[in-house]
Amino acid sequence: MKTPFIARPVEAVVRGKLATAAAVVLLGPRQVGKTTLARKIAADWPGGAVYLDMERPADRRRLDDADDYLRRQRGQLVIIDEIHRVPNLFEVLRGVIDDARAAGQRTGHFLLLGSAAIELMRQASETLAGRVAYLDVAPLNALETGAEPHHIALDALWLRGGFPDSLLAPSDAASLDWRRDFVRSYLERDVPMFAPRLPAESVGRLWTMLAHSQGSLLNQSRLAQALGVSAPAVARYLDLLVDLQLVRRLAPWSGNLGKRLVKTPKTYVRDSGLVHALLELETVDALLGHPVAGHSYEGMVIENLIEAAGERRTPYFFRSQDGAEVDLLLERGGQPEVAIEIKRSSAPRLDRGFSVACEDLGVRHRFVVYPGAEQFGLRYGAQAMGLPDMAAWLSD
After folding, report:
1. Is CATH 3.40.50.300 the right assignment for the domain spanning 10-136?
2. Residue 53 contacts by C-beta under 8 Å, 6 or more apart in sequence?
3. pLDDT tens for each residue of 152-198
4. 23 burial class (0-12, 13-18, 19+ CB within 10 angstroms)?
5. Residue 309 and residue 327: Cα distance in Å, rounded?
6. What sign for the dihedral angle of Cα 302, 118, 113, 160?
7. Suppose 332 and one of 12, 86, 175, 337 were both cysteines; which one would form an S-S bond, judging by CB atoms 3.0 to 4.6 Å apart?
8. At CA 181, angle to CA 176 and CA 184, rounded to 5?
9. Residue 52 CA, distance from chain mean position
10. Rounded alpha-carbon distances, angstroms, from residue 176 to 137, 156, 173, 181, 232
11. pLDDT score at 90
12. 319: left (phi over 0), alpha (psi -120 to 50) or beta
């Protein structure tokens, strides 16, 4: 069955970047919707578009003489999917772009899609500096899925995660099967491709351990001991999962407050549906009965809000040794701007540690995100909001 299409605001952002840059790189994990988005843009692109998938041998053969082929597409938008499979192509792209610029065509040449953020950005920045713009494509979020005509319940987004084929599956069982296959394909295909020297089985075990400890401070020594490997090996496995945009390392805020602060990052499996697949949780009832429920909800909220906050705000968490804590701190222009506490409770209550942290940081915008829809005031100058309203506030 064909997955229904959910309109995504990121489409307008991609079109805008193509109007100002010669090439745009879309970064995101597999199956997140990059190809669907690119094909939709191609369908009505002025001058036409050509789509090449570097996983298809026939398309790769079309680039045997890449310089000649790409020059003959001048005036069209060339979309190259799985660009990381042909790293030598970036040198060719630079020459084609520069010659097109000399002929007066400065924007909208190439849309490049890839899964490994750090490696792809390194390859592109080395050869396409000043010619390329970057854009992350994340799984579907609460604003997108709550809009007409879908109105997908937040609990469904939380349980199944934001990958379209998982979220829109006909049943919870079918969704879980899709996510199991997704995890397996990453371990069998992507880990050997992007990191051939890393043992996929150990990477998979680490991924599952991170799901069990969702939202915890990173303890590489403990993880290394459990896996039977060295701490540097754990660091390499984790770097790969972060690069593939499957895991987030949320940095601690570390400004100078004159008090002892926690300096260890937290880790989150970025998609809540993958957390639950790794832990074999099929239904909301099974999830609510599991110890990971609160931390899983926190991770989903954090991912949604970081995306809504945009590139101009930098995300952190804050924790001091004396117990002052903020789940998500958004900094803008070098100054803490928004403090957000996350509570999976219909009647959220704030600890004094949140107030102390906000006073220490000088944060005026203080919020609590909870599962309800009503907005109301709490002590310490905080406002309670549901996730969609909080995301909309940050987007505005």
Report:
1. yes
2. 35, 59, 81, 82
3. 999 999 999 999 999 999 999 999 999 999 999 999 988 888 888 88
4. buried
5. 15
6. negative
7. 337
8. 125
9. 24
10. 22, 12, 5, 9, 32
11. 87
12. beta
Closest by alpha carbon to 339, among 269, 390, 376?
390
Which residue ranges make up each domain of the chain? 10-136, 142-395
| Residue reference for tokens 């979220």 | 167
- Whole-number percent of the chain with pLDDT over 70: 95
Q: How far is CA 191 from CA 83, 137, 206, 241, in A?
A: 16, 20, 13, 9
| CB within 8 Å of 67: residues ≥ 6 apart | 92, 95, 96
User: What single-letter amino acid sits at 289?
Assistant: G
What pLDDT score was predicted for residue 104? Answer: 81
Residue 1, pLDDT above cutoff 50: no
C-alpha distances out from residue 329 to 41, 219, 242, 314, 325, Å = 35, 22, 20, 8, 10
319 and 325 Cβ atoms separated by less than 8 Å: yes
Encode pLDDT of 213-228 as tens digits.
Answer: 999 999 999 999 999 9
- Tell me 311's DSSP state: T
pTM above 0.85, yes or no: yes
Give whole-number Cα distances, 319 to 10, 211, 267, 333, in Å.
33, 22, 15, 21
